[in-house]
């Protein structure tokens, strides 16, 4: 009788050991859910930088809007300069790197840049998910170029770039590009880009050859669709 009890107890112990081992194996296979805080942190990393970037831009109050970096006798750092803007810190300006720099000239990801010389100026919504960011970026001598960037809100990325204003001059050569952005009755945005370019014909800088051209386009959610460039005026002083 005692022997039967011992065998019965051994049988029960073996069943319990099997059940415990099976439970441990199942627990090791089942992936543990990610902590809620970790998920929220990754989401915030994607959203908050975009919000911080957009907060630097002033909304366009009304259309039509003339965009120009011509400053005349004004200092580009003067408050009188309409498109002075706010300098974008490196942590946020990195979003423009792939469209502003070639692969060779692109700053390192962790490179410390005290002054980016990239300025947030104006913004307007092209669609509920796309914002046009008018951003002043470095030219040959100072931040004289104005770029229109398409910023995609769902992904927090810049998808397109267009140079819509520039002011440049050196040794008699001059190049002035300016734009007028308007809004139609159908809530479409149109852009007219005027370009004036002059070059000296003599060393004394007394005679010049100048060409004025015009480019028109429609700003859509995906891109700016331009029509053919028009040469509207050509002059030569001799």
Summarize the structure.
With 238 residues, the chain is of the alpha+beta class. Helices cover 24% and strands 38% of the residues.
What descriptive keywords fit this protein?
single chain; 238 residues; alpha+beta; twelve-stranded mixed beta sheet; 12 strands; Lipoprotein; signal
Give an overview of the whole structure.
The protein is an alpha+beta fold and 238 residues long. It has 4 helices and 12 strands. It has helices at residues 2-29, 36-55, 90-93, 97-100; strands at 58-59, 65-67, 86-87, 119-127, 130-137, 145-152, 157-170, 173-183, 189-200, 208-219, 224-226, 230-236. Strands 1, 2, 3, 4, 5, 6, 7, 8, 9, 10, 11 and 12 form a 12-stranded mixed β-sheet that branches. β5 (130-137) and β6 form a beta hairpin. It is globular, with a radius of gyration of 31 Å.
Stretches with pLDDT under 50, minimum 5 residues? 23-31, 36-47
Q: Nearest-angstrom radius of gyration?
A: 31 Å
Q: How would you describe the oligomerization state of the chains in this entry?
A: single chain
- Written as H for each helix and E for each strand, in order along the chain, the element string is HHEEEHHEEEEEEEEE
How large a portion of the residues is in β-strands, by DSSP E?
A: 35-45%
User: What's the end-to-end separation, in Å?
Assistant: 129 Å
Strand tally is 12
The helix/strand class is alpha+beta
Task: Give the overall shape, derived from the CA principal axes.
Answer: globular
Largest sheet: 12 strands, mixed
How many distinct helices? Answer: 4
Helix coverage percent: 10-25%
Mean pLDDT, as a whole number?
81
């Amino acid at each position: 009788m005692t022997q039967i009890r011992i065998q019965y107890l051994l049988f029960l112990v073996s069943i319990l050991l099997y059940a415990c081992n099976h439970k441990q194996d199942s627990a090791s296979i089942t992936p543990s859910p990610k902590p809620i805080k970790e998920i929220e942190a990754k989401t915030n990393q994607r959203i908050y930088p975009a919000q911080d970037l957009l907060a630097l831009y002033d909304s366009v109050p009304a259309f039509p809007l003339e965009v120009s970096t011509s400053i005349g006798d004004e200092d580009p750092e003067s408050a009188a300069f309409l498109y002075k803007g706010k300098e974008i810190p490196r942590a946020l300006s990195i979003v423009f790197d792939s469209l502003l720099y070639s692969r060779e000239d692109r700053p390192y990801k962790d490179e410390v840049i005290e002054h980016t010389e990239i300025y947030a100026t104006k913004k307007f919504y092209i669609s509920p998910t796309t914002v046009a960011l008018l951003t002043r970026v470095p030219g040959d001598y100072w931040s004289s170029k104005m770029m229109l960037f398409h910023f995609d809100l769902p992904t927090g990325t810049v998808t397109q770039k267009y140079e819509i204003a520039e002011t440049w001059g050196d040794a008699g050569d001059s190049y002035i590009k300016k734009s007028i952005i308007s809004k139609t009755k159908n809530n479409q945005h149109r852009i007219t880009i005027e370009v004036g370019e002059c070059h000296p014909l003599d060393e004394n800088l007394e005679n010049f050859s100048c060409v004025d051209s015009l480019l028109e386009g429609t700003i859509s959610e995906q891109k700016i669709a331009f029509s053919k460039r028009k040469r509207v005026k050509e002059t030569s002083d001799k």
